UniProtKB/TrEMBL annotation:
Highest taxon of source: Bacteria
Lineage, uppermost ranks: Bacteria, Bacillati, Actinomycetota, Actinomycetes, Geodermatophilales
Designated name of the protein: Diguanylate cyclase (GGDEF)-like protein
Residue ranges of every copy of the EAL domain listed in the record: 22-275
Boundaries of the shown chain within the full protein: 471 to 751 of 751
Organism of this sequence: Blastococcus xanthinilyticus
């Protein structure tokens, strides 16, 4: 729990506002981190043009001993405020890279996307740990995608930029998640060494019904391509939307249409049920 000065301040102020149940959950989360209760679910990402799976996004869940499987919204804010996000992300990264390595050994060279949080980007030692992890598991840096949101960069843009720069310097793909919902999208596209943009789900959802959304998506794909970026649409839930994304030249599709996030074994079953399974270098 040794975090930045900001983290400590947040810890203290929120502590007073907390109910005791809230604090109990924090202690349980501390325990969860060291007892294997945090698990990853994986959601496939498909090449829009070919329909082939090209990667997965790892999404964390907490297999709580009494409350059941908790989603990230139920514990990530707590982890961030109580200085546990560094440890949580280390655990997520370790599991994700190990899984990517196992899939590679099994002939499934899927890209692995992992979400980072605000405090991760203030941690100047993170790029070194990521490099060590990749080397230990013999996973090429290009196979790891690290997703950051625009809001995550706002805490301390200068420090965050340095960390993002170091991660990109390793050869890791940096992706802007929930693109379009932040405040300075264009400045980030210009200034950050990003290689991928993930269109926020709200744009995907309204693509077919709102002409203004359609104009934004169409122009964003074009802009991204002119900048040499790869575009992922999140939250794709129906065929008609997927077909329209294809017309707009969007590269990759992710959403419930293909699969919900599922445990690794279930993803393997899903993959093997597909004719043109992941044989894409
Ligand atoms: P995100 O990175 O934007 O992840 C996509 C979220 O949208 C996931 O929710 C996923 O289940 C959901 N989703 C995917 N396809 C669809 C769809 O077609 N329709 C709808 N309605 N939803 C869809 P989830 O797993 O609850 O994660 C929520 C957020 O929590 C993530 O948003 C991400 O910001 C954060 N998160 C998840 N795992 C991690 C993690 O390991 N570390 C960090 N720092 N953040 C994480
Ligand atoms: Mg994400
Ligand atoms: Mg997202
Ligand atoms: Mg989102």
């Amino acid at each position: 729990a040794k975090r930045s000065g900001t983290g400590v301040a947040l810890y203290d102020s929120s502590r007073h506002a907390d109910s005791s149940g809230h604090l109990a959950l924090v202690e349980e989360l501390r325990t969860a981190l060291t007892t294997g209760q945090l698990v990853l679910h994986h959601q496939p990402q498909l090449d829009v043009a070919t329909g082939r799976p090209v990667g997965v996004e790892a999404l964390v869940r907490w297999a709580h001993p009494t409350r059941g499987l908790l989603g990230p919204a139920e514990f990530l804010p707590l982890a961030e405020v109580h200085g546990l996000m560094g440890a949580l992300s280390d655990e997520v990264l370790a599991q994700a890279v190990a899984q990517a390595a196992a899939w590679r050994r099994g002939g499934l060279p899927l890209r692995m996307s992992v979400n980072l949080s605000a405090s991760n980007l203030l941690d100047a030692a993170l790029p070194g740990r990521v490099a060590g992890l990749l080397a230990r598991h013999d996973v090429p840096p290009e196979s790891l995608v690290l997703e950051v949101t625009e809001s995550v960069l706002l805490t301390d843009p200068e420090r965050s930029l340095a960390v993002v720069g170091a991660l990109a310097g390793l050869g890791v793909t940096v992706s802007i998640d929930d693109f379009g919902t932040g405040y300075s999208s264009l400045a980030y596209l210009r200034d950050l060494p990003v290689a991928e943009l993930k269109l926020d789900r709200s744009f995907t959802a309204d693509l077919l019904t709102d002409p203004r959304t359609e104009a934004i998506v169409s122009s964003t794909v074009e802009l991204a391509h002119r900048l040499g970026l790869h575009v992922v649409a999140e939250g794709v839930e129906d065929e008609a939307t997927l077909r329209h994304l294809e017309r707009l030249d969007c590269d990759t599709s992710q959403g419930f249409l293909h699969s919900r996030p599922v445990p690794a074994a279930e993803l393997e079953t899903w993959l093997s049920a597909r004719p043109a399974a992941a044989a894409r270098p």
